Amino acid sequence: MPYQPLEEKYRRTRALLEQMQGSGCTVSIATKSDLILRDLELIRSFPNARVSWSVNTLDEQFQKDMDEAVSIERRLAAMEAFHDAGVRTTCFISPIFPGITDVPAIIRKAKSHCNLVWLENLNLRGGYKTVILDYIAEKYTGLAPLYEAVYKKGDRSYWAMLDEEMRRFTREEGLLYVRNDDSVKRPFEEPPIVVNYFFHEEIIPSAKKK
After folding, report:
1. In angstroms, rounded to a whole number, what is the distance separating the alpha carbons of residues 166 and 82?
2. In whole numbers, what is the pLDDT of the chain averaged over residues?
3. Contact 179, 195 (CB under 8 A)
4. Does position 206 have pLDDT exceeding 70, yes or no?
5. What pairs with residue 93 in β-bridges?
């Protein structure tokens, strides 16, 4: 029963939501599941509630290689259901795999049923770094030099290039594009804001300067 731990997690989440209901608390929930649909009516009772789903590919096979969560199709369907119910939703495109994650395609797919799009790059540390680099070498051989440059040589040019691509893309799509700041508020019915966190590690140094 591989989903038993997830079921337990959602039972606990619901219990917490029930205890907080009516308190005026604002809730923000991040998930890779559609079990949260069971709590839709409860969540929408909170003021300014927000639910985000991790979606970093439209390729279901790649998704299965990366995590054991529900399909991308089910995540997007859950996002749409919450958005249709008036709950603010976020499409969290993370982690972005260089050369694999098609960010524009995901945004086009999700933009009609989300209020916010977060973009975050793939960061590799510890043993996970070796696992991913070995996976790329085996499954995406042509991308191995790119991953070598980004994750072994510290080359940031891919993210700078993608940043510029996103600026052009969002301008063409009529979407607001910002970096490291999701504090901008827009009416619910407005198109989503796209927030780039490629350079999120720069937030702390810049904050120290102020």
Report:
1. 26
2. 90
3. yes
4. no
5. 119
From residue 172, alpha-carbon distances to 19, 107, 165, 167, 175 in Å are 45, 13, 11, 9, 8
Residues 6+ apart with CB under 8 A from 28: 49, 50, 51, 52
Place of tokens 């054991």: 68
Cβ–Cβ under 8 Å, residues 38 and 76: no
User: CB 166: neighbour CB atoms within 10 A?
Assistant: 21
Q: Are strands 116-121 and 50-54 parallel, antiparallel or unpaired?
A: unpaired
In this structure, the strands spanning 193-196 and 116-121 are parallel
CB atoms within 10 A of CB 149: 15
Is pLDDT at 104 greater than 90 in this prediction?
yes
Two tokens, residue 159: 């993210």
Q: What pLDDT, in 10s, does the model give residues 55-78? A: 999 999 999 999 989 999 999 999
Cα gap 60→179, rounded to integer Å: 29
Q: In what order do the strands lie in the sheet with 193-196?
A: 28-31, 50-54, 88-96, 116-121, 193-196, 176-179
The string of pLDDT tens digits covering residues 189-202 is: 999 999 999 865 54
Output the pTM of the full model.
0.88
Please tell me the distance from the alpha carbon of residue 110 to that of residue 76, in angstroms, as a whole number.
7
